[in-house]
C-alpha cells in the first residue's frame, strides 16, 4: 500500500496558533479523564444507593430502583446523550435555558451533559453489581447484625456494604474501564476529548494511521494503569484468610 | 426474664408454633430440644424477633417484644444471640467483630470497648487471636469469638441456636466449656441443642418440643430418667444411642 | 526504511488492510478485471449520496460516470462493470490507497496534506467558507462573531479556520464542533450557536432543508476557497490523464452546465428541495482554467 508514513506528524504545526498535533492529544486525554473520573464518582455513589434500594424490603423503594435500572440500561447510550444535550435543556425554565445554551461556554455545557449522561447510565450498571454483591452474602450476616441491635442502615453501613464492595471489585473494574471507553461519545456533541482530537488530527494531517495508532496506545496505557490501580486496591482491602481475596 | 404467653406462629398453612407457654427465670439455664423441624429454632428466634409471631405475647425483661411499638434494636442490644453458623463478620478482625456493636449501638468509647473485648477473649481463651480474621480460625474458635461478641453487649440473657451443630466433633467440647462457665457465672441462658450431656450437667430445665408444641418441661434428671410422652422417649432413644 | 515502515504498518493495522501489488497501473487492472470501483458517500447532498435506490446519485457521481464512459471508449470495453463502494471521511483515503476504490468522487477537498497520500483530478467544484445565520441575528460578517458561540462540523477546514481566527485575531468565539452538518444545523436552530460556518454550498443545502428556509441567510466574506477533486492512487499518470481529460471535456463542451443545473438549481431527491445555488465566479474561473492544484497553492 502506498501510504505515506510520517511518525513525526505529532510534532508538526496544526496551523492553529503555534499548536502542534501532540498538544491536541494531550488536551483530548485531559478531557477524557475529566469526563470519566467525575462521571464515575457520581455513578458509584448513585449506583450504591440504588443497589441498596433494590435489596430493601420496602417494595416502593426497590420498585423505583428497578425501574431506574430498566430505563437506563435499555436505552442506548447515544440516545441518552442526545436527550441530555438537546432535550433536557429545553425542559428548563426560560432563563435557565438561555444560560445553559448561550451564556455558558459551549464546552462546559457539553461537558455537563456528557458527565450527566455517563453518570446516570453507569449508575444503573453499578447498581446491578452492588445488588448482586449484597445478595451474594449469606443471610446470616444480616441476621447476626440485627441480633446485635443494629438498625437497617447500620447493617448496610458496617456489615453488608464493606463485604459486597470487596466481592464486586472485579466487575466494578470493568465498569470503570467502560466509562473511559464510553466517554468517547462526548465527541458527538463537540467535546474535544481523545477520540475527537484523534479524528481531527487524522482529518487535518491526512496521517490517519499514525493518529489512530497513538490513540490506541494512549487508551491501552490508560486502561492498563487503571487495571493495575484497581488490582492494587483489591489487594489492599483483601480480607486475610478468605479464598480468592488475593491476600494471605 | 422471658415469658411466652400462648404464642402461635403460622407460616402459610404450617402451624410452626402452637400455643407455647414457657418461662425462663433470671439466672436459669433452659435447654430446648426436639427433633429437626420441631420448631425449636423458630422458637428461640422469636425471643429477639428475628422471627415474628402470629399471635400471643413474649415478654423479655418486662417488655412485650411482639408489640409493634417496641424498639427492637434496643431490645436486641440486651439479648445476646449465638448462631449455628457463627456468622462472624469476615471482613473484620476478631477484635473489631466484638467491638463493632458496643461502639456503634451503645456509643461506647473505642478504647473501653477494646479493653472489654480483650477481657472477653481471655474468658473464651482466645486473647492471642484478637488480630486474626475469622477465616483464619477453626470453627470452634469462631464460635467462641461469637459468644464473646454476644457478651460484649452485656446482655441480660444469652440465646444459643444449636451452637455446636456445625462443628467438627473435636471442637464441640471447647465451645460447651465456655457455655458451661457462662452458666456458672449466673447468666440467663436459653439453649437449643442436641448435646444431651450439656443439658444433663448444666441445664436447670429441659424443654422438649415437637410439631411446634411444648410436650415436656422438667428438670434434667426427671426428663432423662422418666420422659412422660412417647415422642420424647423416642427422641431420647435416638439422640442417646445414635449408632443403635 | 520502507521495509520497517511496512512492518510497523502491518503490526499497527493488524492485517486489516491487505497490501496488493501495484506493479500494474489502474488502467491495466481495469482491463484485467473488467471492473472499476467508484467510491461514494452516503449523505453528501447533492454531491454523492444515497436516496431511493441502492446506487449513489449526485453531482460528483455524474462526473465519475462520465469518466467511466470515457474509459469504456478508450479501452474499448463497452461492458465495463461499475462497482460502488461506500466510503466515509475517515475511510476514503486508505481505501483508495489500498486498492479497494479506484476513483473517489464525492466532496473531498484537495489540500496539501492529502496530496502526500493520494493524487487529485482537476477540480470538480469550488466552494467558499461562509456563515449561515438567522436573518434576525444581526450577524453580517465574521467580525460580528466576536465573543459568540459559533458552530461548525468537526474535522472540516472551517473548524481549523475558526480556531485560527480565535488564536490570531483574538475573536474570543466559542467554537462548537458538531459531528455532522445536520447536527451543526440543529445547534444553530436550537439557539446554541448564532452562526454555522461551513462550505457555502453545504450551507445552502441545510437552508433548503429547513422548515422555513426564508428565516435563514448565508452571509459573510468567504474566509477561504476550496477545490473539490476526485481522488485516485498516487503515481499513476496514465489513469490520472484519462480522468482529467474526461473532466476537461465536460468543461469544454459546456456539458458541465447541464449537470450543475440538475443538482444545484433544480429540486433534487430525496425531499425534492432546490438548493438555488448559482455557479460562483470562482468555480466559473476553475472551469475556464482547470487545475489539479489545491486552492492554497493558487
UniProtKB/TrEMBL annotation, chain A:
Signal peptide: none
Domain ABC transmembrane type-1: start-end pairs: 29-230
UniProtKB keywords: Cell membrane, Membrane, Transmembrane, Transmembrane helix, Transport
Database matches in PROSITE patterns: ABC_TM1
A GO cellular component annotation in the UniProt record: ATP-binding cassette (ABC) transporter complex
Chief localization: membrane
Subcellular location: Cell inner membrane; Cell membrane
Membrane topology recorded in Swiss-Prot or TrEMBL: Multi-pass membrane protein
One example of a Gene Ontology biological process annotation: amino acid transport
Transmembrane segments: 20-50, 71-88, 108-127, 208-226
Gene Ontology MF annotations: transmembrane transporter activity
Record Pfam families: BPD_transp_1
Family: Belongs to the binding-protein-dependent transport system permease family. HisMQ subfamily.
PANTHER family reported in the protein's UniProt record: GLUTAMATE_ASPARTATE IMPORT PERMEASE PROTEIN GLTJ, MEMBRANE COMPONENT OF AMINO ACID ABC TRANSPORTER
NCBIfam families: HEQRo_perm_3TM (TIGR01726)
UniProt protein name: Amino acid ABC transporter permease
Organism: Crenobacter luteus
UniProtKB/TrEMBL annotation, chain B:
InterPro entries in alphabetical order: AAA+_ATPase, ABC_ATPase_HisP-typ, ABC_transporter-like_ATP-bd, ABC_transporter-like_CS, MetN_ABC_transporter-like, P-loop_NTPase
UniProt keyword list: ATP-binding, Cell membrane, Membrane, Nucleotide-binding, Transport
Organism superkingdom: Bacteria
CDD domains tied to this protein: ABC_HisP_GlnQ (cd03262)
Pfam families for this protein: ABC_tran (PF00005)
GO MF annotations, alphabetized: ABC-type amino acid transporter activity; ATP binding; ATP hydrolysis activity
Xref: SUPFAM superfamilies: P-loop containing nucleoside triphosphate hydrolases
Residue span, ABC transporter domain: 2-236
Family: Belongs to the ABC transporter superfamily.
Record's protein name: Polar amino acid ABC transporter ATP-binding protein
Organism: Crenobacter luteus
From TrEMBL, chain C:
Annotated InterPro entries: Bact_solute-bind_prot3 (IPR051455), Solute-binding_3/MltF_N (IPR001638)
Signal sequence extent: 1-23
Pfam families given in the database record: SBP_bac_3
Family: Belongs to the bacterial solute-binding protein 3 family.
Domain Solute-binding protein family 3/N-terminal: 35-267
Keyword terms, alphabetized: Amino-acid transport, Periplasm, Signal, Transport
GO terms under biological process: amino acid transport
One cellular component term from this protein's GO annotations in UniProt: outer membrane-bounded periplasmic space
UniProt keyword annotation of Ion transport present: no
Presence of the UniProt keyword Repeat in the record: no
Subcellular location: Periplasm
Origin superkingdom: Bacteria
Name by which UniProt lists this protein: ABC transporter
PANTHER family documented for this protein: AMINO ACID ABC TRANSPORTER PERMEASE (PTHR30085), GLUTAMATE_ASPARTATE IMPORT SOLUTE-BINDING PROTEIN (PTHR30085:SF2)
CDD domains associated with the record: PBP2_GltI_DEBP
